[in-house]
Specification:
With 545 residues, the chain is mainly alpha-helical. The chain is 70% helix and 5% strand. Strands 2-1-3-4-5 form a five-stranded parallel beta sheet, sandwiched between helices. Helix 4 links the parallel strand 3 (61-65) and strand 4. Helix 17 (332-349) packs antiparallel against helix 18 (354-370) and helix 25 runs parallel beside helix 27. It is elongated, with a radius of gyration of 30 Å. One of its GO terms (biological process) is phosphorelay signal transduction system.
């Protein structure tokens, strides 16, 4: 068979989808594909048509423009096709664009297209690029078919058979082999594949794979060191940032994980899931300003994304609500206004989701109260109370947020009752109980939480250094911010008992201890500090008998 007839035959067997908002370009691409030997070619003008077509038809080759006018762009088309598994591994996706900015390329690359074509395109360029990819597709089709079927052992067997007889695709085969071993949990074989590659040559994907194995084996320090080295060498390798942030989170180094994600979002700002991860880590670090910025970008990127969610709008509204309570920032009103606007947008955009309105009103209530609009807040609270009273099966996350609002508007008793019922109903859910305890301890804004935590750290340092007076002063100041914080109350009791033991002539420390322990009466048995509370109560009783 001649080369031209081979190429024509290769093109003829496949199905094609051309996605472009300009009809003339669609027709031009179809003409070029036909000249190469293709005849099963579908043309569509926008993202929605493309996704609908792929839902009901198998496509071998997708040629998609990056800029598609209103709605989704090419990156978001690829993102949705991958997310919904509408493209087989054997299918080819080529991004076609006149734009070559780093931001576009990095964003598109996050979803791993098989190649790029830069406009203007001629037949020779199109044919050359496609025939290389089609040849590879044909050679690796049996392996990809088994991976699509999730028959990983057979796919591994086929990779091993292909390695000695298919040297052209050795890199792809080794990478796939390592990934397949890892998917199956066969970490020793995965590590051997990656180590063998790294002994021959330093390749980014092999270093990343080796780091994944190290993390899975809980060798955190070595994995983190490997990933830092990889990023230093290849600062555009985005997968390394994500894995490094994950490794640092597993080590409890949340501040460092946040810095890594901030660096990554500068390199590639259009990755929605990474922006979301940054927002969540910043929240854990009580960096609410950074969290709000990342949630804003998450919401914006979600406008045409398969990953769009009411949760993103709600998280942004909650972050802005926190910021609106910070009167020192000078932007309290602006943050409150933005919070109400984003919550209103959420209600309209996700009107078909029953819980959205309830979740929105819970946050709106505390925003309005914080801005002095007490009448409006009270009206909302009345409707919320009626809804919670009539529906005892409301989601625990929503109940926690409602308790936060109750604390904010001064209904501490109602908040504690709600949290008490929640703890009783979910007594076997350790993570939820921790969140309930945290809210009971610190039902305040993030600035106050940070202040109380810093004072508590100062008190612990002073106590460890033997400076009991300084420790008592720090814990007392912290309790002025979070008066019901169980651990801080017990810390102060412990210090006061030490002070009394050092100088029993004054009974004042014991009276203060009694007042602090009385504040913790009714502490549930499942609370992590309950044993300590009982022990200190008994010690005080012995000293006052």
């Amino acid at each position: 068979m001649s080369e031209s007839s081979y190429r024509g035959d290769a093109f003829h067997k496949l199905t094609y989808l051309v996605i472009d908002d300009f009809e003339n370009f669609r027709l031009s691409l179809r003409q070029m594909l036909r000249a190469c030997g293709a005849d099963r070619i579908e043309l569509v003008g926008n993202a929605e048509q493309a996704i609908k077509y792929c839902t009901y038809n198998h496509v071998d080759v997708v040629l998609c423009d990056y800029n598609l006018g209103e709605g989704k762009n090419g990156q978001q088309v690829l993102e949705e096709l991958r997310h919904k598994n509408l493209l087989r591994r054997s299918s080819l996706f080529l991004m076609v664009t006149a734009e070559t900015s780093k931001q576009m390329v990095m964003g598109a690359r996050e979803n791993q297209p098989d190649g790029y074509l830069t406009k203007p395109i001629n037949r020779a360029l199109l044919e050359q690029r496609l025939i290389t990819l089609i040849d590879q597709r044909k050679a690796l089709l049996p392996i990809n078919r088994e991976i699509d079927r999730e028959n990983y052992p057979e796919a591994i067997s086929l990779c091993l058979q292909a390695l000695p007889r298919n040297p052209r695709h050795k890199t792809w085969l080794l990478k796939t082999l390592g990934d397949l071993y890892f998917r199956l949990g066969d970490l020793s074989h995965a590590a051997k594949v990656f180590d063998d590659v790294l002994q021959q040559r330093e390749l980014s994907w092999a270093r990343l794979g080796r780091s994944q194995v190290l993390l899975a084996n809980r060798s955190h320090d070595q994995a983190v060191a490997n990933l830092k080295q990889l990023i230093d060498t290849h600062p555009d390798y985005m997968e390394a940032y994500d894995l490094l942030a994950d490794g640092l989170r597993q080590q409890g180094k949340l501040s460092e994980a946040q810095r890594v994600l901030e660096q990554a979002t500068v390199q590639s700002p259009n990755a929605l899931l990474r922006q979301k991860q940054l927002a969540e880590v910043a929240e854990a670090n009580q960096d609410i300003g950074t969290a709000a910025d990342a949630w804003r970008r998450t919401v914006s990127l979600g406008t045409h994304s398969i990953h769009d969610s009411a949760d993103h709008y709600l998280a942004l509204g909650q972050s802005l609500s926190e910021l609106s309570e910070d009167e020192d920032s000078g932007q309290s009103v602006e943050h409150a206004t933005e919070a109400l606007e984003i919550l209103g947008s959420m209600e309209k955009r996700f009107a078909d989701q029953p819980a959205v309105s309830l979740r929105s009103r819970i946050v709106q209530c505390r925003v309005l109260f914080g801005q002095g609009q007490h009448r409006e807040a009270e009206a909302l609270q009345s409707s919320l109370k009626a809804e919670f009273d009539s529906n005892p099966l409301i989601d625990p996350d929503i109940s926690l947020d409602y308790a936060k609002t109750l604390f904010r508007i001064g209904s501490d008793g109602d908040a504690k009752d709600l949290l008490g019922r929640l703890a009783e109903e979910h007594s076997n859910e350790a993570e939820l109980l921790k969140r309930i305890e945290a809210l009971l301890d610190e039902p305040v804004g993030f600035r106050q939480k940070l202040k109380a935590r810093n004072l508590t750290r100062d008190g612990i340092k002073a106590f460890e250094a033997g400076d009991l007076a300084a420790a008592a002063a720090a814990f007392t100041e912290a309790l002025a911010v979070v008066p019901n914080h169980t651990s801080v109350n017990l810390n102060l009791v412990q210090v006061l008992l030490k002070i009394y033991e050092a100088d029993p002539t004054s009974r004042e420390p014991l009276e203060q201890c009694r007042a602090r322990l009385d504040r913790l009466q009714g502490l549930p048995e499942q609370h992590r500090q309950h044993r300590r509370y009982i022990a200190l109560s008994q010690k005080l009783k012995g000293l006052t008998a």
